[in-house]
Specification:
With about 180 residues, this protein is mainly α. About 55% of the residues lie in helices and about 10% in strands.
Length: about 180
């Protein structure tokens, strides 16, 4: 009887978790009234929501990863461009609270090396080299967040980082700088 009870409990709990995940995924999806476009759009939206962002197992820190595939040449790394220009808009559309958390991560943990080609999820440089799209991605994402939510708390919380980014953009040489200045 105990084995049967355990099986029923496991099945009911698992079914409940699956039902909850299914309802959450359906709540997030959108339609354009074009089934083929919807399929692509919602695949990106759900990937951005469930796979590109999450909590680290060891530290429980919220973090972003451009790719989790072991077939990609760099797995579990972070790029501002991919995270904030490609993934962020989908998350902002479906979950503004998570979008705010993404901005806190990008302007917090990742701030010291914004503009550098790629980084580990803790902000340490992975592949060196300045890229303008990597530098402006947090500014573009923040502007879209404020436009949608009218929430200025992220701007206030990260004022120093934003001032530094804008200063670098205005600097001679098109934003290229010595990383020791950050």
């Amino acid at each position: 009887a105990g084995v049967l009870l355990n099986k029923k409990f496991e099945r009911d709990v698992l079914d409940g978790v699956l039902d909850q995940a299914d309802a959450d995924a359906h709540r997030r999806t959108r339609t354009t009234r074009d089934p083929e476009l919807d399929k692509i759009m919602n695949r990106n939206l759900l990937f951005s929501t469930y796979s590109a962002w999450g909590r680290a197992i060891d530290t429980e820190q919220f973090t972003g990863m451009t790719s989790r595939s072991n077939r990609y040449y760099v797995s579990a790394a972070y790029w501002d461009r991919d995270a904030l220009l490609w993934s962020f808009p989908a998350v902002l559309d479906s979950d503004p609270a998570r979008a705010r958390e993404i901005l806190d991560y990008a302007l917090g943990v990742q701030a010291r090396n914004i503009g550098i080609h790629s980084r580990f999820i803790d902000g340490v440089v992975l592949e060196d080299g300045f890229e303008l799209d990597e530098l402006v991605a947090p500014i573009v994402a923040l502007a879209s967040y404020v436009d949608k939510t009218q929430d200025m708390s992220v701007v206030e919380r990260h004022r120093g980082v934003l001032d530094t980014l804008l200063e670098k953009l205005r600097a001679p040489g098109g934003g290229v700088w010595d990383r020791d200045q950050t």
